[in-house]
Design a protein that fits this description.
Length: 424
């Protein structure tokens, strides 16, 4: 059985209201020690909070929840206090003096919800993403996960797999022969599942949405890369100089365009170089390879091959650069010419890398689990041995269990719940 924990779950004071959570076997007794008689479960009541010496600490709205029908799956109490620093400090201090309570660690309330079956691992990942969301597209995608959209789909797949497994195991149990041919309908049903999993795996990945689409500005030295970065972000984040090779390491700026998260990166000029500049050039090459979108500011003939490259003819305000080559967009960081058009094109390409409306984006861990289940089921095509079929189905179910956190994820739980703030 867990011990009882408490923490401030709302934002840092001062605020209009401060929400303090208590969860665990002693939650009700501890709250009663402060507030006297508690209201019935799932009812709210205004109570005076008093210390052990009888001093009035605050007047708060108190809500009681009985486990397992609570957010954490345990007995839970919420104290909605006034949000001043002094009020929060004195109430937390009073709780800290209760011998059967301790302060919660970051993410511990959500971890208990996971361990008590109130949410699965995919929903917990969605909640972590929601807490870190900075754009509306990130918020919408995180809410789909946190709301259990993927969880419900996995439950449906698991139910179908369980039926297939039962049919395969029954064929083995009721036949005495060493080798039993599997029901061909099992393989056919499994292949239908493979098709559904393929469709999910073909969706946009979560990383560009969560971390931002990586837009790399690259080209030879003194091509106007830093000036372009500065005019896009609206501040002098990169050093601008007429001397070639001024930027010796990459500069990254996080920003959002029309709700699309981007990581805009200025790189060292690409040329033959040694020493410190050579290190920067090597990093520039690696960033070009990793880029989701490449803005190339050099000669088109020298441009690296890239599936999402935009050729940018910079410094179009200069007399000798008035005409842009075919297939290039003329821009000027001085006059602003072409900047709006460039950003529209970047946003359009970036949107294609993000999930569509109402579509769940899978992170690397989730995709790996789905891919493992898909590969196990694909092995059933052309297989007639019932023992092999049953084993493949068991393996696919195990992959789904890893996806929802029912098995084989202990090593990553600390890292996941460590992303949460204190009190969540």
């Amino acid at each position: 059985m867990h011990d009882t924990i408490f923490a401030l779950s709302s934002g840092r004071p001062p605020a209009a209201i401060a929400v303090i959570r208590i969860s665990g076997p002693s939650a009700h007794a501890s709250a009663a020690r402060l507030a006297g008689e508690l209201p019935p479960a799932r009812h709210a009541a205004v109570r005076e909070l008093r210390g052990d010496d009888g001093e009035l600490l605050d007047e708060a709205l108190l809500l009681r929840f009985d486990g397992p029908a609570s957010a954490t799956g345990e007995d839970l109490v919420e104290l909605h206090c006034h949000g001043g620093r002094a009020v929060v400090d004195v109430v937390l201090g009073a709780l800290a003096r209760h011998d059967d309570l301790r302060e919660a660690r970051p993410g511990e309330f959500t971890r208990r919800a996971f361990e008590n079956g109130r949410i699965d691992l995919t929903a917990a990942e969605g909640l972590a993403d929601l807490l870190e969301a900075e754009t509306q597209s990130q918020r919408r995608a995180a809410l789909l996960l946190a709301d259990g959209h993927l969880s419900r789909q996995i439950e449906a797949w698991q139910a179908r797999l369980l039926q297939l497994s039962a049919r395969a195991e029954a064929a083995i149990d009721y036949v005495d022969e060493d080798s039993v041919d599997a029901d061909p309908a099992i393989a056919a049903d499994a292949q239908a599942l493979v098709g559904e999993l393929d469709a999910w795996l073909a969706r946009a990945t979560a990383e560009p949405l969560r971390d931002g689409v990586l837009v790399v500005i690259a080209g030879p030295p003194n091509a106007g890369k830093s000036s372009l970065l500065n005019v896009i972000v609206g501040s002098e984040r990169a050093i601008v100089s007429d001397s070639p090779g001024t930027t010796r390491d990459h500069i990254e700026v996080a920003m959002a365009l029309d709700g699309v998260p981007l990581r805009l990166t200025d790189t060292a000029g690409i040329r033959e170089a040694e020493g410190v500049e050579g290190i920067g050039v090597a990093r520039a090459h690696r960033l070009v390879d990793a880029a989701d979108i490449l803005l190339w500011l050099g000669e088109v003939a020298d441009a690296p091959a890239h599936p999402r490259r935009l050729n940018v003819h910079a410094r179009a305000d200069l007399p000798d650069r008035r005409r842009a080559p075919a297939g290039s967009l003329a821009v000027s960081s001085v006059t602003g010419e072409g900047i709006s058009e460039l950003l529209v094109q970047v946003t359009q390409i970036a949107r294609q890398m993000l999930p569509g409306e109402g579509e769940v984006a899978l992170n690397r861990r989730q995709r790996a689990c789905l891919a493992a289940a898909r590969d196990d089921l694909a092995l059933l095509e052309g297989t007639s041995d019932s023992a092999v079929v049953a084993n493949c189905l068991r393996s696919a179910r195990s992959a789904f269990d890893r996806l929802t956190g029912r098995a084989g994820v202990e090593d990553m739980l600390d890292a996941l719940f460590g992303r949460f703030c204190l009190g969540k």
